[in-house]
Amino acid sequence: MATRTALPDERKRQILEAATAVFSRSGYHEARMDDIAEASGLSKGALYLYFPGKAALITTLLESHLDRSLHFMQGLVHREGTVRDRLLAYIRHEAGELESMRAILPLCYEFYAAALREQEVAAFFKSYFGRYLDLLDQMIRQGIGRGELKQTDPRQTAILLAGSHEGLTLLWLMDPTTFDWTAQMESSLQLVLDALAV
Amino acid sequence: MATRTALPDERKRQILEAATAVFSRSGYHEARMDDIAEASGLSKGALYLYFPGKAALITTLLESHLDRSLHFMQGLVHREGTVRDRLLAYIRHEAGELESMRAILPLCYEFYAAALREQEVAAFFKSYFGRYLDLLDQMIRQGIGRGELKQTDPRQTAILLAGSHEGLTLLWLMDPTTFDWTAQMESSLQLVLDALAV
DNA sequence: TAATGCTGACTGACCAGTCAGTCATAAAGA
DNA sequence: TCTTTATGACTGACTGGTCAGTCAGCATTA
Questions:
Q1: Which residues are CB-neighbours of A80 under 8 A, at least 6 positions away?
Q2: pLDDT by residue (tens digit) across A38-95?
């Protein structure tokens, strides 16, 4: 019984792990279902027993990855401490994920491109970025309410912080040797928060 | 004679225009050479008389687009005025290109993804971002030298500005209704420059 | 014996790139 | 001036290869 119900989950995990490896090596379009089958140690047919198709593999992957990041941020909003300390904690947390991000982010970019053409993908990212901005927004409001930050448009600040995060990460990915991700993220955050400190 | 030598250029322009339309509608991978042929009013064979293949179409397109943006920035570095005014001018210039950016940027993202896997594409973007950062860096040094900005690490500031630009544009593309690109870019720039003003 | 989990050869659609052939025009010859 | 030959721009049917997804059948277990 335990095995019987556990099997599908185990197989899904096994397939997703293989898919992550293959997608991050080859990208979505270049990746072949045969490669994923081989990497997973299962047959191609088996993939279709657990997932309806190639697209489902990538969306499941991205969804779980982005959800984890969002979940951490959610926790921070309800934690004690200054906005500064909590955002620094967020940066440090993300820094720990940098290696897995290097595998996932190229796939995100392929999907950002798709998002700008396909309704369904667009809704997915719109919701993700929306929730991300809402959490930042909420934290900034806390900072203003507690007298840590100046009166300022919280949404605008949230967009600046989120945008810097996205953009700096992109620049870093393009050439990781030119600067240290964590140091740059921290100094950028400090600069913005200094400008907004009371 | 005039017509004879002008023809290849005219045809190339005609093909690139069609390619822009088709690529921005369908993306690089989904776009078919047959579609581009039809959109250009030429036959598929003719495309191969003027370009060696599909890849050459997209690289030519992106190259000319990024070069134009870089060229404008280059001009700004040698222009009179404060750093603030010149960067505001840059934002206003880019704002004017927003519509054509909406067609081109999805392709960029597809290529960012490719850049993270393929040596040749990586070199292309590395060089582009490198030159972009160099120009910003140079302008910030001018600001420091002229007493407009505090002593600060110019590279770090350049990375923050360039990163914000990239990231804010990405967020905006994902949902252009949530905020105004120009207003957000300007307020972000003002905040950063205020923090660095003497 | 039946059910479940899985296999992998196969199919059909797709598409980048090719190339034998067309056609309009120009140059050469009658 | 009329005819023939040459040129080069262009065409589009075709090829060769790829790959997502299918399904008839096998192996293992209950």
A1: none
A2: 999 999 999 999 999 999 999 999 999 999 999 999 999 999 999 999 999 999 999 9
User: Looking at the complex, does the CB of residue B165 fall below 8 Å from at least one CB of chain A?
Assistant: yes
CA distance B170 to B190: 20
Instruction: Give the pLDDT score at A2.
Output: 35
- Tell me the three state secondary structure of residue A118: coil
The two three-digit tokens of residue B84, written as one number: 């603030």
Å from the A66 CA to the C14 C1': 33
Please give the pLDDT value at position B9: 85
| C-alpha to C-alpha distances, B125 to A20, A153, B67, nearest whole angstrom | 25, 34, 12
Chain B contact set for A116 (CB, 8 A): 102, 105-106, 109, 173-174
- Cα nearest neighbour of A101 on chain B: B116
3-state secondary structure of A176: coil
Q: Do the Cβ atoms of B46 and B11 come closer than 8 Å?
A: yes
Q: How many CB atoms lie within 10 A of CB A91?
A: 19
Q: B106 in contact with A at a CB cutoff of 8 Å? A: yes
Q: Which of A130, A74, A64 has its CA nearest to residue A97?
A: A64
Task: State how far the Cα of A186 lies from the Cα of A182, in Å rounded to an integer.
Answer: 6
Q: How many Cβ pairs within 8 Å bridge chains A and B? A: 156
pTM confidence score: 0.91
